Amino acid sequence: MANGSDLMEKLVSLCKRRGFIFQSSEIYGGTGSVWDYGPLGVELKRNVKDAWWRSMVHERDDVEGIDAAILMHPRVWEASGHVDGFTDPLVECRNCHRRFRADNPDIRWTNQCPVCGTKEAFGEPRMFNLMFKTFMGPVESQAAVVYLRPETAQGIFVNFQNVLTSTRQRIPFGIAQIGKAFRNEITPGNFTFRTREFEQMEMQFFVEPGTDDEWFEYWKTSRMEWVKSLGIRPEKLRFHEHAPEDLAHYAKKAYDIEYEFPFGWNEIEGIHNRTDFDLGRHQEYSGKKLEYVDPIDRDKRYIPYVVETSIGADRVTLAVLADAYREEEVEGEVRVVLGLHPRLAPIKVAVLPLVKKDGLPEIAEQIQRELRRSAIPSFYDDSGSIGKRYRRQDEAGTPFAVTVDGQTLEDGTVTIRDRDTLRQERIDQSRVVEYVRERIR
Ligand code: GAP
Questions:
Q1: Nearby residues of 89 by Cβ (< 8 Å), 6 or more positions away
Q2: Any atom of ligand 1 within 6 Å of the Cβ of 197
Q3: What is the dihedral of CA 387, 391, 394, 395, to 10 degrees?
């Protein structure tokens, strides 16, 4: 059985082999810490994002969705504190010139380069801003500098008044968004865990000052429930509270939801009490009023407090994959299974004619057409032994496999195999769609 770095190696290899995740620009030797999602990976990540959007926006009437642009006015990042404060301390080895985060305990306490072994390798750290810069328009001057957003949250803050006036929302309410963010991380790594381009799923909940602690507790509990609803084992999840000295520049209180990855416990989501910091700063920097006026008591005006929930779509997808990976011995052979929650699985059902003759492929094709009509992702496979075909689907995380065999010709029934229990049931072929649909919700 795999564990630790061995498990990560196996997972990375399965992700490549089966088309979940590829290294970006691999034919050129790869780009540092940027990854591409393949045919199965894009479906899996999309299912994770859809589950988040459904629970955050569609199933609530107090949260609105938006999709803000990646490029924003450069003053946004001055107001948010990112130009001055979104930095990591960086040191460079005087011998091999590799760069490291100076706050890494191994670097801080040993002053020895972990790559070339040089002692007394590092001088004073310098602060390194993690925002990617580019230029807006044809002139590459300081005045044309814009940033790739390092968090999606600011697109929400600057649209607070727009959403408020264009909807019927009243405080308390939230704004949710899924989108790309970019950070020039000094030490990215652990596959898709820490990358330089990633997607965030963020929600800013605007509340009356004084009610923020209560809302913080509400969202903290509710977010943990959501992460569990993805099928991740509860014993692999825990909260971690930020110590006052570790709080981000905007936060009054912060909890992480951590998952026990093969490389240790690490953050997958942050729940932050951002107070009125962001709206207050945008009001100051833009000169536009960002106060909320209570519609009943119009003398009651305040800058709302914000409780934020922020989860990385890539990072939680990695947690889902790592949690789902298992190796089992079945009849003397090792089978690799991705035990993905049926709701997240890229392919919901495989359709397998036992042999390529006697009219079995035609029946299987008919079943697949019906699945397509019901928008249930399926995969038709008639090559290789049935055992091999099952194994291929196990690795892809497909929860069900329908086999059309000789008996189908006699009584119209097919077998339906459950990936996890390996149990096979016979059901009428007309019930396949209904059977699968009931189990993938
Ligand atoms: N708006 C608040 C914010 O961005 P954060 O803790 O810096 O807070 C939130 O990031 C989440 O975004 C993290 O919990 C993680 O899931 C994801 N994330 C942050 N940096 C990442 C990176 N370099 N690669 C992948 N995901 C990242």
A1: 101, 102, 103, 125, 126, 127, 128
A2: no
A3: -170
Q: Which of 286, 387, 369 is nearest to 330 (CA)?
A: 387
Calpha distance 383→91 (Å, rounded): 55
Rounded-to-integer distance, Cα 220 and Cα 271, Å: 6
Q: Which atom of ligand 1 is nearest to the CA of 194?
A: 24
- Tokens for 277, please give them: 């910091």
How distant, in Å, are the alpha carbons of 61, 70, 92, 97, 130 from that of 140? 45, 19, 28, 29, 20
Ligand 1 mean position, distance from CA 195 (Å): 10
**Is residue 194 within 6 Å of ligand 1 at its C-beta?**
yes
Ligand 1 close to Cβ of residue 199 (< 6 A): no
β-pairing, 63-65 with 173-182? parallel
The rounded distance, in Å, linking the Cα atoms of 17 and 421 is 25
Chunked mean pLDDT (size 10), the chain, 441 residues: 79 97 95 94 98 98 98 97 91 91 87 92 91 95 95 98 95 98 92 97 98 98 98 98 90 96 98 97 97 93 98 98 96 94 98 96 98 98 96 97 97 97 97 97 85
pLDDT at residue 3, as a whole number: 65
Longest Cα–Cα distance of the chain, Å, equals: 80
Centre of ligand 1 to C-alpha 390, Å, is: 37
Cβ–ligand 1 contact at 370 (below 6 Å)? no
Structure confidence at residue 2 (pLDDT):
52
Pocket flag, ligand 1, residue 152 (CB < 6 Å): no
Q: Which atom of ligand 1 is nearest to the CA of 316?
A: 16
Contact call for residues 342 and 437 (beta carbons, < 8 A) = no
Amino acid at 190: N
- Are the beta carbons of 219 and 255 closer than 8 angstroms? no
Report whether residue 314 contacts ligand 1, using a CB cutoff of 6 Å: yes
Strand partners, 100: 91
In this prediction the pTM is: 0.95
- Which of these, 371, 353, 330, lies nearest to 415 by C-alpha position? 353
Which residue's CA lies nearest to atom 10 of ligand 1? 310
Query: What is the residue with the minimal CA distance to atom 12 of ligand 1?
Result: 312
Region label for 149, one of left (φ > 0), alpha (ψ between -120 and 50) or beta (otherwise) = beta
Token readout for 69 is 């642009």
